[in-house]
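Page 42, continued from yesterday. The earlier attempt failed because a stray header line got pasted into the input along with the sequence. Redoing it now with the clean sequence only.
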Amino acid sequence: MKVLFFDCFAGIAGDMTVAAMIELGLPLEHLRRELARLCLPASTYELAVEPVRRKGIAASHFEVRVEQDQPHRHYADIAAMIDESSLAAAVKDKAQRIFRRIAEAEAKVHGMEIGHVHFHEVGAVDSIIDIVGAAIGLDYLEIEAVYVSPLPLGSGYIETAHGRLPVPAPATAELLKGLPVHGNIGPGERVTPTGAAIVAALGTAFGSPPPMEIRSIGYGAGSKDFADMPNLLRLVLGETAETLQRDEIVVLETNIDDMNPELLGFLMERLFEKGALDVTFSPLQMKKNRPGTQVTVITPCDKRDELARLILSESTAIGVRYYPAQRLILSRSVEERLTSLGAVKVKVVTDDALLRRVVPEFEECRRLAAEKGLPLMHVYRIVEREVAET
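This time it went through. Structure tokens are written below.
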């Protein structure tokens, strides 16, 4: 299986992603031809790639040169542009997923409906090309799985169309929800909205790179220089014989025998809100013949301490056990499909590039049931049947 590891040791941006893909073998002429399939006049922009060095490391810098001010666009305009283009279906799907994630983040930050989202920086020609270019690169390189390292948060402030904002910018922070991040880096914007959206929408697994045979390495350079490290994104292209994906997790456990069971339900809700991958309760027979409950939490490694503290604050536990573990998992992605009841998100599960099943998301079905005034089981069956036919 062909895999790509995003080593975001200094951060990630859309132009850095495209530049690193060009180093991995994406021909600039192929990129130009595919981008011409968009409804963007070629005369409005020019693509340029130049060799650079960042703290002695050779890399490529990708730039979209625009001679005149470009109009900012609504999310609906960009989605229609991609849908009406002659790009390959796989490229369209990836690009739409990235822009959808950005639109959802912007809608949340600004408190509006997604259809009313107006892109500023992300709606400009250079950002559109960066995002669609990344989708073209993944398709050209025939990447089957994307692994992403923890992302550096950065610090300080940036100037935007909305004025001076903290780093990470609010929309970027929203895109980073659920992803492993760290603060072990100097000041400056290290992850841009386009970079965050690319890995948030297309990342298969986050954390360590998978066991693989490295075939090629590409370095994409950012425009800025940072004092603490080279401003580079490293993409590692590899092959793995495994059809199952592997990731690292932490298991948290504690035994409780003196807590009101009604409060356990609230504990479970809070753990999921804070990023737990799974939470289970198991009955126990504890000392002095007391019935008890074992609380087991599966969590990403970077959320271990946060979730352990939550268990200690929201329960009567006075200690939490933990141990690292590894999982073998099938490849899965969340996609939006159109049904007779409306758009709905589904989980697509594959094994060795073969479709295993398409599973409707429960919360999406519950939302449709409430909106349409239909029984939940009826909605679930309709969605399950219709998405299986697409």
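Notes: The first strand starts at residue 2 and ends at 7.
Reminder to self: strip header lines before submitting.
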